[in-house]
Amino acid sequence: MPVGYVQIPVGIAGPLLINGREYSVPMATTEGCLVASTNRGCKAIHLSGGATSTLLRDGMTRAPVVRFGTAKRAADLKLYLEDPDNFDTLAVVFNRSSRFGRLQGIKCAIAGKNLYLRFTCTTGDAMGMNMVSKGVQNVLDFLQTDFPDMDVMGLSGNFCSDKKPAAVNWIEGRGKSVVCEAIIKGGIVRKVLKTTVESLVELNMLKNLTGSAMAGALGGFNAHASNIVTAVYIATGQDPAQNVESSHCITMMEAVNDGKDLHISVTMPSIEVGTVGGGTQLASQSACLNLLGVKGASKESAGANSRMLAAVVAGAVLAGELSLMSALAAGQLVKSHMKYNRSNKDVSKASS
Question: Which CATH number goes with the domain that contains 89?
Fold first, then answer.
């Protein structure tokens, strides 16, 4: 029952230079300094020669839960599903659901007589949860013949895991798993970021690594990855609730070239994005995807646009981490927020 729209300011950070190509990154946010800060990180990366992004994995997951009368029967199905000799048959059944959905693997976990089946598959340029769900349903229907005592309790049993912090996503990945890195020249660290390589490396160790460990963080070994992920997601029509697992990120910093320059990387195992379907079809969000050059399905290679979008997300996170950590190291955080994130105007009256 749509009744209208909620307006969210959109800014552009960039150009972000990744793998030799420039991107203007749209960010929808009400946080005043976020776009400016990410933009500063983009500048530092660009002046240092750009960032390199590498795709490690690409596979969406869905994990139904089924129940048997005994734990032994649950174990029998687990052994059947994880037997390599049965994979080709299961893949044929699964792949009937879509032109792009291709089964990659099945990982099972038992809790008594309950069995959780974590299916992973490629999804082309779609984020792909509906696609993988259809394939899973096909397999469950197929299994019912040989396992008539199998009771399907739910198509999703939370072993997927969607929209919740979960170690399985942090370890196994979900959606796109990406690592993005850059070497920031020492002169750029001093002139643009207003700090030093030594200070950044030490703060990253104390804050992002040790501090997060002290807090018992799960996938939260970063400064504010979710800030950038959510802003880009809203601008480009992604599911903003998936920022939970998509923001899983570990930020690493190291002094290189005899301590003169900074090597920074972000490793993000579960970026869930698509360039077709869902909110990507709305006018404003479609325009933002078009700005990035990833709108719709790739004509050259299925999934290329969504993988490129994941690379941009990781690159923007890299820029955001670099800039915020520099502001913290230089003691500029509160000062910058007081200067740029306060308004003496009544925005609601101005807009009306």
Answer: 3.30.70.420
